[in-house]
């Protein structure tokens, strides 16, 4: 997985200065969080369902080998096949081989974060296979050569006018000569262009929201119907997904379906929820002749049994992004990873490298809202802290920070010296020059980072300890 | 020797917190005033320092454990420990037991201490059953500080106390959104932190309230500093300051 997370600071600064992005994020922040709040209020057993979902995932992860093998067996029984990819290059090559084995020249894709994770589309195109994203948001960013900025709404960083420009630029050669601005007309134009692609595709590639072990079914949750055209029209359907997506039963899958759209958008259920089991049967009117499932590990099995195992419960709903004040400030691209927000900050160091993504765990106020909205109760702040521990252990965090924390710890190990030191600091700050009305507006060194954007209340004369002593109050 | 928690005990150990110690001691003295008004004797253990949260959040678990042990040893002897901060309270009550997964002795102690530790509003309601004197005429906005809200489930308590004191509350639209303080986050990522503070400031302004109240000094310094820098004349107060003002007027109002 290609990441540019080491550039988090310049990317986030650019994001904060980007008015169009800020306006898009401003709209997102109210809409999705308010939607979820209402959606949750409408389902009294929501909290109970969260607990059940967490338990189902924990149970499945404990017996992951068993459920994956059962899933494979059911798929094979239905006439499909399962392919195991231990890393992203294996996954890409398996998919390319499958495409080439049917002489595919044109591929349609429905939305799949795992195919983003393994950089599939550029790889297929480098091998002379046209691969077209058919989810509207994915289609837009594919035209623009961008990565998704959100795991559910990949083009959420764009305004309608930007989409209008992009369509005009790319659809002109297809005979769409007019620049259109109406939302509905933009969708209709994309639909016309994509309809031709659907009809011409040799292979359809989808992801999977859930894999059902008892039936060998893949469950797809979408809102546009593009996944249904992607998976039903071409002769070959390739499912690409992570090994952690398996759940034991259809009943279990229904628990997650009740949580997923509600957590993402506040909706009861998505517009389309498709259950696909194997290739076309004799009596079926449509469907693919070939049905393949590529199960991607790519670092996931390393998380099994580690302190990060809880992260494997993630169902990619995006609630943590939608409620994260940092994500809502800088958007997804600043994270430099296809997975952004709190879930991305935990997952990216595992899937790429800690060294390249060390900013991500730190760029969080640990406010904990992500954990409170997570439908599978992943302790995201705890996992972010664990990455911070690992960074410090590998000396990847700034040396000044390590020394500072050591010094602080040493000082507070000696309460008397601490009181003397803070008493001196109090005097210095109390008499700090160049500020007015009880506030300090410029400080040096690290404290200067505070006064770039805000003032600091001038401390009272004397620390609490000094004032307490002056008052002659009891200390024990 | 460890004293058992008992409802008869009327002594409270006060955990001052670093920011109260160094920036705004008045919040500490006001907290003590209210606790005494609630009928408790308040002692301030001499050798207390920091709860260790900067180390815990900064990847320095080893020192966080060392600091936590000192706090546990210093405060174990008391029946109640009261803290005017959900953040430091959450650290001791919620995070300390997690620090000692491999140390049974201190895990037991930390779990025992957790039962005695109360954030100020929780103590006033759950233990002291405190009824403030209804003397305030103020209309304020209230900000839920993240750690208190999510680690200690503090939400209704401070509002109940403020309303009991006669205060009217204008709720923020995004009352559960972080203000951008986040400990060292605010100096490591100052631009993002400021953008978060800016949203909080706009939310506060939209309520029309001229006072903003909360229960954590970190958020207070952050939001107040941003309001001040941007030129807004809005008072930012700890709820202990409002309650203590009520105690001063109690005699004249005869309640």
Can you put this structure into words, describing what you see?
The complex is a heterodimer of chains A (476) and B (255). Among the domains of chain A are: 5-158 and 202-301, Rossmann fold (3-Layer(aba) Sandwich), CATH 3.40.50; 400-470, no CATH class. Helices cover 50% and strands 11% of the residues of chain A. Chain A has helices spanning 8-17, 19-41, 46-62, 64-77, 88-101, 113-117, 120-126, 136-144, 160-171, 183-200, 226-232, 250-264, 300-303, 319-322, 327-330, 341-351, 358-362, 369-373, 380-393, 399-412, 415-430, 448-451, 464-470; strands at 81-85, 106-109, 130-133, 203-206, 210-212, 217-222, 236-242, 246-247, 272-276, 290-296, 439-440, 456-457. In chain A, the strands form three sheets. Chain A has a six-stranded parallel beta sheet with strand order 1-10-7-4-2-3, with helices on both faces. In chain A, strands 8-5-6-9 form a four-stranded mixed beta sheet. Chain A is globular and about 90 Å long. In chain B, helix 2 (25-37) crosses helix 13 (239-253), helix 5 runs antiparallel to helix 6 (104-116) and helix 11 (190-207) crosses helix 12. The relative contact order of chain B is 0.15. Chain B is globular, with a radius of gyration of 18 Å. Helices cover 54% and strands 12% of the residues of chain B. Chain B is α/β, with parallel strands linked by helices and 255 residues long. In chain B, strand 7 (211-214), helix 12 (217-229) and strand 8 (235-238) form a beta-alpha-beta unit. Chain B is built from 13 helices and eight strands. The interface between A and B is large, with 64 and 66 residues.
